[in-house]
Design brief:
The complex is a heterodimer of chains A (111) and B (113). Chain A has 111 residues and is an all-beta fold. Chain A is built from no helices and 11 strands. The radius of gyration of chain A is 13 Å and the shape is globular. The N and C termini of chain A lie far apart (37 Å). Classes of the chains: A mainly beta (111), B mainly beta (113). Chains A and B meet through strand 4, strand 5, strand 9 and strand 10 of A and strand 4, strand 5, strand 9 and strand 10 of B.
């Protein structure tokens, strides 16, 4: 039931762009994105809801394609602080927030 | 400052022991979760609770049970710990609405020997 993330890992130089994808075999109501730095708890980035628009947070934005049950996270002009593991979490039905996460994408930003 | 607090950061238990992992949140959240984090497998949902005394199995409930007697506290129980339950365990909570973020605890690194 876990959503599938791709790629599993990506290495970038500072200033480059990255896209992380999340797909589900089931119809989704919402998609959450979190970032976890080494040794720390995951931290919320944003939520996308069915019928909602693309969201943004500084240079990090995301989209949600309901028909394809897919979401993508876009990181533009990456900074060293963007390094970490990114998780997408999905909720299947409205009214219940049972949140299931993917296997994560490890992002490394080098100077 | 909102908080999800897990009772232990590190725990070492013997095979066959009954193990309790405790999680407390101070945000009056309806939803609470227990996840297990292993390299390459991401965050896997063990159990989910949407109200006091209400629970729902996640993807990997075998070998685990949970208890939620009070709204702020969600306990994960390993009935008879085994070495394959050595892992990082993360507790999280969220409000009752669909579009609210989840807050995570710092995690408990459990080693079963």
């Amino acid at each position: 039931q876990q959503p599938v993330q791709s790629p599993q890992a990506v290495i970038l130089r500072e200033g480059e762009d990255a896209v992380i994808n999340c797909s589900s075999s089931k119809a989704l109501y919402s998609v959450h994105w979190y970032r976890q730095k080494h040794g720390e708890a995951p931290v919320f980035l944003m939520i996308l809801l069915k019928g909602g628009e693309q969201k943004g947070h500084e240079k990090i934005s995301a989209s949600f394609n309901e028909k394809k049950q897919q979401s993508s996270l876009y990181l533009t002009a990456s900074q060293l602080s963007y390094s970490g593991t990114y998780f997408c979490g999905t909720a299947l039905i409205q009214g219940a927030q049972k949140l299931v996460f993917g296997q994560g994408t490890r992002l490394t930003i080098n100077p | 400052d909102v908080k999800v607090t897990q009772s232990s950061r590190y725990l070492v238990k013997r095979t066959g022991e009954k193990v309790f992992l405790e999680c407390v949140q101070d945000m009056d959240h309806e939803n609470m979760f227990w996840y297990r984090q292993d390299p390459g497998l991401g965050l896997r949902l063990i159990y989910f609770s949407y109200d006091v005394k209400m629970k729902e199995k996640g993807d990997i409930p075998e070998g685990y049970s949970v208890s939620r007697e009070k709204k702020e506290r969600f306990s994960l129980i390993l009935e008879s710990a085994s070495t394959n339950q050595t892992s990082m365990y993360l507790c999280a909570s969220s409000g009752g609405q669909q579009n609210t973020e989840a807050f995570f605890g710092q995690g408990t690194r459990l080693t079963v020997v």
